[in-house]
Design a protein that fits this description.
The protein has 9 helices and 5 strands; from the N terminus they run βαβααααββαααβα. The chain has helices at 14-23, 31-41, 43-53, 66-73, 77-101, 134-145, 149-158, 162-168, 181-193; strands at residues 2-7, 28-30, 107-111, 126-131, 171-174. The chain is globular.
Length: 194
């Protein structure tokens, strides 16, 4: 079974592309969603986060104290790096278990915004990057997250430049509102299903 990754900058349309693949019965591992789940479900990860950032990292009901953690890691680059060094390996391990559980499919997809940044693309057979013009990406995120254009631009500026993601990609899906997403996905689906 082939392992395919899918990435792209904020607002590029990764989720939309994944939904098209899912309509073709291809299972998708959503890394960000799984990371959020593992942060409260993985006992070892919870313990390590508490050791790194303090008991206040979790509320009394066991839920993750996002506001507290964000306040620390977004003001301390070293703490953010250390937190990522705990979370990313847990997600990588979870990905492998998930991939092994998928049977009777020609390939699986792993959707992750930081797949290149974390080196996760090295564990995959192919990488797809979803690309969209910056202006379209900004408009999408403004509507989706109900935030200002400035906030979206600030997020984009913190991400790896698009050109770097494109250099790493084996395949690019263009999500500019002009090229058919269904046709682009169908073409890749045929290739990966061989």
């Amino acid at each position: 079974m082939k392992k395919i990754g899918i990435t792209g900058g904020i607002g590029s349309g990764k989720t939309t592309i994944c939904k098209i693949f899912e309509s073709l019965d291809i299972p998708v591992y959503y890394a960000d969603d799984r990371a959020k789940a593992l942060i409260t479900e993985d006992v070892t990860l919870v313990k390590n986060i508490k050791n790194l950032l303090g008991e206040e990292s979790y509320l009394s009901d066991g839920s993750y104290n996002r506001k507290y953690v964000a306040n620390i890691v977004f003001n301390d680059a070293e703490k953010l790096k250390q937190l990522n060094a705990l979370v990313h390996p847990a997600v990588a391990k979870d990905t492998i278990l998930w991939q092994r559980s998928q049977v009777s499919v020609p390939y699986t997809l792993k959707e992750a915004a930081l797949i290149v940044e974390t080196g996760g693309h090295h564990a995959l057979d192919f990488l797809i990057t979803v690309w969209a013009p910056k202006a379209i990406r900004i408009d999408r995120v403004v509507r989706r997250d109900n935030i200002s254009r400035e906030d979206v631009e600030a997020r984009i500026n913190k991400q790896m430049p698009e050109i770097e993601k494109l250099k790493t990609a084996h395949f690019v899906i263009i999500n500019d509102g002009k090229n058919s997403l269904v046709q682009q996905v169908a073409k890749l689906h045929r290739r990966f299903s061989r």
